[in-house]
Amino acid sequence: MNVKVSGCIVTYNNMRTVGKAIRTVLENTGCDFRLYVVDNGSSDGTPDYIRKNFPEVTVLETGRNAGFGAGHNFILDRLDSDYHAIINPDIIIRDDVISNMADYLNTHEDAGMLSPRILFPDGREQVLGKKIPLPHYLVASRLRGKKPGKLLSEYAMLDCDLSEPTQIQNATGCFMFIRTSVFRQLGGFDERYFMYFEDCDLTREVNRISKVLYYPYATVYHEWGRESKKNFHLKRIQIESMLRYYAKWGLSSK
Fold it and tell me: What topology is assigned to 4-126+163-225 in CATH?
């Protein structure tokens, strides 16, 4: 497969997890691949740590906490790849999912972005929304118990056959695999979202010009901490992003 793939991890004081993410991505990716790390003003020495331990990675510093979407957009003009992976610093890769997804996009021109299967590191499934994040779904997600209820199951499409690639309305930003041309055409993420809902927004934008597919043939592992549930500041940011999202898209399910 003669294609170029790029990837980007945005960090902000992620020293605890980012080394594992970088190592697993580099060790398990077999295609022509270039990894960028954009640091959003970390104070824990993350940029120097990465430069010392992973010299093959391109490290760029914004000099400030610019936010998730703005951090990923920071490299947009540098990309010369065919496909691009948006990767959280708490992602673990155990096989060559990047080449796998590149192969799929290479033979399915109608697809613009893929969302892989996402598990906890111990192999449990992460129940993540795949439909438009309407308020009742978000409440169900926030109040989730040990087993997903009816609304959360509907939101995550647990009642659907997801054994084959399936178009979805909402893809999680912890790992997205997008055509670089589509990412560039859209101007990257909408930077009005500092954090949260920028992934929902990008999914809708991609679906306007192409298709976003849940892709079950690739699996990544996510050390999901749900920090907004524990941190009042992050909860406030999440609510602000939610209001921006509804102001832009309304409450329609289409």
Answer: Spore Coat Polysaccharide Biosynthesis Protein SpsA; Chain A (3.90.550)
